Amino acid sequence: MSTVWRRAMPLVRPRYLLLAAVGAFLAAWPYLGADRFVLHVAGLTLVWAVVASYWNLTNGFAGITSLGNMGFFAIGAYTSAVLAKELGLTPWVTMPLGALVTTALVTVLVGLPVLRLRGIYIALLTLAFADALPSVITIFRTWTGGGIGLLGIPELLEDLEKWQAYYFALVFFVVAQVTLLLVVRGAPGLAFVALRDSEAFAQALGVDRFKEGLRVFAISAFFTGFAGALYAHLLGQISPAMLGIEQFLMVISMWMLGGAGTLLGPVLGAAIITFGNEYLRVAGSLRLGLLGLAIVVTVLFFPGGIMQLLGGARRALARSRGSGRASPRTPGAAEAAAAPAGRTSEEGR
C-alpha cells in the first residue's frame, strides 16, 4: 500500500489537482445551469484554443515564424463543408478528410519551399499563402459560395443542441491538448526547442532542421485543419471573412497574451479573448480597442504573457510562505547566538 501511495504522490500536487477540478467543471458545466449562449461561446473557445495552441507549436516551440495558420484553418473548413454538402458525406468522414487534405497541401505547398528559407522570408511566404486563399475561394464559387460564403453546411447530428456541440468541442480539445503534450514532452518537442534555441548546436547533435520543420508543419496543419472542419459543422456556415485581418490578429493575440512557448498560455488567451470579444460587443466600436489595450499592457509589462504573470505570483507566494516558516525559528537562533556570549562573559568574571 505504501508503494502505491509513493507512486501516486507526484500526482497529488496543487497543479494537477487544479487541472482535475477544471476538467470536472468543464465536463459538468452543461448540467450546472449554463445557458445556450454561454455553451455556444464555450464551444467556440475550445476550438480557437486548439488553433492558438498549434499555432504556438509552430512559432513558440519550434521558432518558425509562420503567419499562415488561418489558411490551414480555412482549408480544413471548406474541404469538409464542400464534401459534406456537395457529395452528401457524413461530417464524421469529411472532418478527418479535411484535416488530411490540409496536411497534404500545407506540407507540399508551404512546408517544402518555406523550410529552405530563413527569418522574415518564412513569415512573408506563409502570409502570402493565406492571403491567396480568398481568391481561390472566389474562383471556385460554384462549390464554395464565393464571397457570400457557404451556407447550409450539414450539422454533426440532426437537430444538434448547443450542449451536444459543446461536448463535441470538448472531446476534440482534450484529444488535441493531450497530443500536443505528448509531442512537446517527447523527442519531437525536444528537437523543435533545440532548433529554436540554437540551430547550429541542434544540427551538430544530428537534428535535421528540414525533417523536423516538415513534421511541425504537418502536425500543426492536421489539428488546425480539423479545428476548421469542426468549426464549419458547428456553425453551419463559413465565409472568406475567417481569413480577414481581424480574425488573424485575434488568434495571434491568444497565444501571445497567454504566453508563447507554453502549453496552458494559448488556452487562457483563447478563453479571455473569445469571451471578452462576445461580452464587450455592448461597447460597440470600442470593443477591439479595449481588447487591444489589455493585450498591449500585458505584453508590455509581462513579455511572457499571462503565464509569466502567474509564474511571478507563484514564486512570490512561495517566498512569503518560506519567510513565514522561517520566522518562528528566529528567536531560537537569537538565543543560540546569545548563549556563547553569555558564557564568555561569565568566564570573564
Write up this protein.
This protein folds into 2 domains: 30-242, no CATH class; 244-327. It is 77% helix and 0% strand. It contains 16 helices and no strands. It has helices at 2-8, 14-28, 36-61, 69-86, 91-114, 120-139, 141-144, 162-185, 187-197, 199-204, 209-235, 245-258, 265-279, 286-301, 305-326, 329-348. It is globular.
Number of domains: 2
Which regions have little confidence, pLDDT < 50, spanning 5+ residues?
332-349
- Whole-number mean pLDDT: 84
Q: Count of DSSP helices?
A: 16
Principal-axis shape:
globular
> What fraction, in percent, of the residue positions are helical?
over 70%
Distance between the amino and carboxyl termini: 62 Å
Structural class: mainly alpha
Can you describe this structure in just a few lines?
The chain is an all-alpha fold and 349 residues long. The chain has 16 helices and no strands.
Task: List strands and helices in order, with pairings.
Elements: H1 2-8, H2 14-28, H3 36-61, H4 69-86, H5 91-114, H6 120-139, H7 141-144, H8 162-185, H9 187-197, H10 199-204, H11 209-235, H12 245-258, H13 265-279, H14 286-301, H15 305-326, H16 329-348
Helix pairs in contact: 3-8, 3-11, 3-12, 3-13, 4-5, 4-6, 4-11, 5-11, 8-9, 8-11, 9-11, 12-13
Give descriptors for this structure.
349 residues; mainly alpha; 2 domains; 77% helix; 0% strand
